[in-house]
Amino acid sequence: MVAPAGSFFQEAALPEQRLVEGVAFPAVLVPSDDATAAGGGLDAFLDAVRSERASTVEPLLRGAGAVLLRGFPARAAADFDRAVDAFGYPELPYVGGAAPRSNVVGRVFTANESPPDQKIPFHHEMAQVPTFPAKLFFFCEVEPKSGGETPIVLSHYVYKRMKEKAAKLGMKLEWTEDGVKTIMGPIPAVKWDESRGRKIWFNSMVAAYTGWKDARNDPVRAVTFGDGSPLPADVIAGCGEILEQECVAVPWRQGDILLIDNWAVLHSRRSFEPPRRILASLCK
């Protein structure tokens, strides 16, 4: 895929990508031939982010929901912090989130620090609180020895699959004026993506039911029907199967930056064999 003349970026293809309604997911950007020939370092990359964000990166993000930047000269946490700053999105403080995280530098935090043998189920970041990030950045500082991918899946397509599942069970989805899904079956918490004009599966239902089990949290009680009765385990399992069927999991490479539109994409984490160090930054 040829880059426009003078561009620092060019689109690329990976075997893990999939076409979703004709769009490559996720979009992938690598250094253009011009950028490689010029031997651009970190400062050149940051300048390119500032100058080409609106013309190159954001159209891909809007269309695909996620953009993987691979092969660029960000190698350490401080580099990633500068890259996030170059994108110019306002920072969102990590308030109300459920994941264990530690601040590393500036706007950069560790990703979820759950033990490596545990999978983190699909979720939208901070979907359980009123103020959630619009965009997420992930950065691979240390590649996993094995596993440890961050699978992603498009919310609107998951919604379509969930709707078909509900129809087969004889259930009907209702849409209320305030944009909150009326719970009639196994599909709660649907939101309206105003910018794209479509319904999305925006919740952490599967994550709440299959994870977060401790002295204070009972997964069976964490997700219920509208009348308070628990959801059957097989319904949750069916939702999880759809998420897995539709996801894309690209193995991390050191220096990868993954930009996710939190309105469009759910993400998760597979178990891994250390070492692995993935950093994150949340934006409004």
Any chance you could write out the topology, listing elements then pairs?
Blueprint: E1 9-11, E2 18-20, E3 23-25, E4 27-31, H1 33-38, H2 42-64, E5 66-69, H3 77-87, E6 103-105, E7 108-110, E8 120-123, E9 135-142, E10 146-147, E11 152-154, H4 155-168, E12 174-175, E13 181-182, E14 190-193, E15 198-201, H5 205-210, H6 219-222, H7 233-246, E16 257-261, E17 265-269, E18 272-273, E19 277-283
Parallel strand pairs: 4-5
Antiparallel strand pairs: 1-4, 2-3, 5-16, 6-7, 7-19, 8-17, 9-16, 9-19, 10-18, 11-17, 12-13, 14-15
Helix pairs in contact: 2-3, 4-7
GO molecular function: oxidoreductase activity
InterPro entries: AlphaKG_dependent_hydroxylases, TauD-like_sf, TauD/TfdA-like
Protein name: TauD/TfdA-like domain-containing protein
